[in-house]
Amino acid sequence: MSSITELMPFIVLIPLIAGPVCVLLPGRGLPWLLATLAMISAFIISAFVLAAVFDGDTLRYAFGDWPPPVGIEYRVDAANAFVALLITGVSAILLPWGKPLVDDEVPERQGSFYALVLIALAGLLGITLTGDVFNVFVFLEISSLATYGLIAHGRDRRALIAAFRYLIMGTVGATFLLIGIAVLYILTGSLNMLDIAERLPVNEGSRALDVGLGFIVVGLSIKLALFPLHHWLPNAYTYAPSLISALIAATATKVALYVMLRFIFDVFGPAYSFTALPLAAGLMALAIGSMFAGSWLAILQSNLKRMLAYSSVAQVGYMVLGVSLTTVSGLTASFLHLFNHGLMKAALFASAGLMAYRCGGLGMNDLRGIGRQMPWTLTGFALAGVSLIGLPPTAGFISKWYLLTAAVDAGQIWLVGLILITSLMALLYIARVIEIAWMQPRPDDAPAVEEAHWTLLLPVWVLVAANFWFGIDTRLTVGGATRAAEALSSGALP
Q: InterPro entries of this UniProt entry (predicted)?
């Protein structure tokens, strides 16, 4: 156990140190190789860390041997180890996949590009592992600033506008979060999460405490792209380079949700958050709004990446809906969908990236008839779409089944109908793409399209296979989500 604890900081340190080194490396191959090896190494360590805490243990690492709350610590339980495994695992799969696409979309200064990728991922991992609230803000800004630059690398000029819009919204969200953290520090004189939880006057009806929680939840809702604070997301996903769209869709919003849950459950406590304040009702209303608005807007889109972006808004709604049920089973469903959605959305955006790589665009007219020319790519997209819809035997079915069960157990049977309706809406927009790609003829003036090379298809199909594997063998996903929910709730939820 002690050796694993000593390795734990390297999940963040490896990509954080490798990032600046990428800038110094010449050419295209070496920066990509270093970035790939860094994330594979981080994934291996993350797997060992999750195994160490899977049975309910907690790992704590104090930097500089300064004990908390004076010093900064990483505190890892099943909840953040589960999220760290998703971030590092998806990154380790997507970085090898993305090299030819990055060569095509970002032909120059790839050392700087991969440096930003690693810094963004290191920031997300730092947010996930830290037990210090100010460190959450610092790592959030590190990740966000790198992500703004990565989105701006998109070859469409609108990528700059998308990055600037994300910068504005992200700055507002980070400012709200910082104000909330400042309130916590004023009330407690501490920045350590556990120490704050012990000192907070949650039983005294503090108006300042209400304000602090409100600022934190709103700030993280912007980062989460929870309706109606989602407006930065569609353009960011649409105009970013293909690798970046896949990475941030699979990881960034998941980390924002995790941090929100960590504040609600570990810092403020569920008794205060859900009993003293009407937070559950507010989250449920916003979750339902996200589910319907995201699904409806996805149906209306004529660009594949934009459609998938609005789909992500809808899927965020499912995750937040589970939290709003204020039960262990609902929280389990949220963590389960957090993990499974990362896998399915990575597969969908990776498939879309291959279509853009071969077709030159992702408008629905560009995709007409390509199913017969890119059968492996489109089949992978369709199967990942099956998981997004929530059909068996996929990971998406498992997480939606747990969400439905949690809603029934909580006495919110009416939510079952809403979940089924929005799942049917997902069927509509996924089926539309399949119909255009497979059923419609290729335009006469359209250029010939070749299937992607097997080295590009392999990572996509690994992600697709994972969606089906975790729909059959749920020991890791359901077990990890259950332990994550138990670690956060600490017996305070029914």
A: CPA3_Na-H_Antiporter_D, NADH_UbQ_OxRdtase, ND/Mrp_TM
